Amino acid sequence: xxxxxxxxxSIARWLEPLARTPDETADLFSESRRExxxxxxNGALAEVATRRERALAARWCAEGRQTLVAxxxxxxxxxxxxxxRLRAALGRSPLPMRPxxxxxxxxxxxxxxxxxxxxxxxxxxxxxxxRHRLTATIAESRREIVPxxxxxxxxxxxxxxxxxxxVAASRAGDEPRAFAFHAPESExxxxxxxxxxxxxxEPRERPIPCGDGEIDVVLAxxxxxxxxxxxxxxxxxAGAVSPLSALADARVAVSExxxxxxxxxxDLFGGYEQDDEGSTPRAVRLLDGGRVAGRLTDxxxxxxxxxxxxxxxxxxxxxxxxxxxxxxxxxHASADEIARRLxxxxxxxxxxxxxxxxxxxxxxxxxxxARRVRRGRLADECxxxxxxxxILPALAAIEAGVGREVQPYRGLGWCARxxxxxxVGGAAPDLLLRRLRVRSLA
Length: 442
Fold this sequence. Notes:
Blueprint: H1 8-15, E1 24-41, E2 44-62, E3 65-72, H2 76-89, H3 113-128, E4 132-147, E5 153-170, E6 173-184, H4 189-200, E7 213-219, H5 224-233, E8 259-261, E9 284-288, E10 291-292, H6 299-302, E11 310-311, E12 320-321, E13 325-328, H7 335-342, E14 345-348, E15 353-357, E16 362-367, E17 370-374, E18 377-382, E19 385-390, H8 391-396, E20 407-408, E21 414-417, E22 420-423, E23 425-428, E24 431-440
Parallel strand pairs: 7-14, 13-23
Antiparallel strand pairs: 1-2, 1-4, 2-3, 4-5, 5-6, 7-24, 8-9, 8-13, 9-10, 11-12, 14-17, 15-16, 16-19, 17-18, 19-24, 20-23, 21-22
């Protein structure tokens, strides 16, 4: 992604008067983003659309208070104007206006990733599922943070998403199935994508209603990260008020359970090299031996001790502490052992939506289908359905004997909170939970 470099030395000099005390910080955030969308239907490329955006924001922060001035464009002239407006909003001496027009936009040479996927993807999908309606998104984003004090930081991320519907065979006829796959864009994800498409298109029995009531469940194939994202990551974001807020170092789950949020895992969808405040990220243990062990912080809540979880949806959003990649440590149990311990319940390998109400601790997880387990053996298909529960009882209901194989869950890709959307990911082994509430959506 070609772009005109910012004059970071001048920008830092403009920002410096806004960070006069150790408690004050000021920075400029700039993003250049290119997003290519490929509409694919039944093995043919139906439409290609490309969108490019450049935006930046100047910010002042002190003692948890923030003032943000954002604008479209991404050159030095726009940066100077944003800092000038920020200084005026704070009642500081304004920068003098500099004559001249806006910086010229550099010519965009384009990315090689989108044409490559446009050539290969329709045939790749058609071989696994001849009938489908899917949308592929290749997003490339370069972000740069210029602080009033310290060195500037920049990083580029390329993300790939494939979402939509495939038509698969079932004993009762053709069946439309939702499909979602999110991964960092690279050549290496091709084989994994093929396997995911083939698995989604496998002939299966038509599901029956799963019924309503209380039930034991296994969250398998890595999808436990969706539950733990809602039950741990959101409640432990700095500033959140939740049932976990006053439980630092309290045991809330089995001692075998080790969970961390790790932005440094660049092989997962939510990874990054620098956060959106220019801090170097680090993995944070959320559960250590089943005990609440840490919180996700940004500079507004932790100053220079930020864990590197200050994230923005874009330049028009102020940074806030957000989760990235939830990673669960492996245990020692095989899938067969977990199924035998489950005895009777639901075996779930896919969660398509989730939400949590932090004040009450209530969460909901939607699944498109599941397998019933009877006497430790997989039985009939059922679904769709909704799982529900409360954070603390559900964490306490995770059984010892965590699965030994950790798998990335590519169905988790984007998380929206307060209208701000950021990429997230994760990897987990199989987890057995007792006594969740289930409601049939069939």
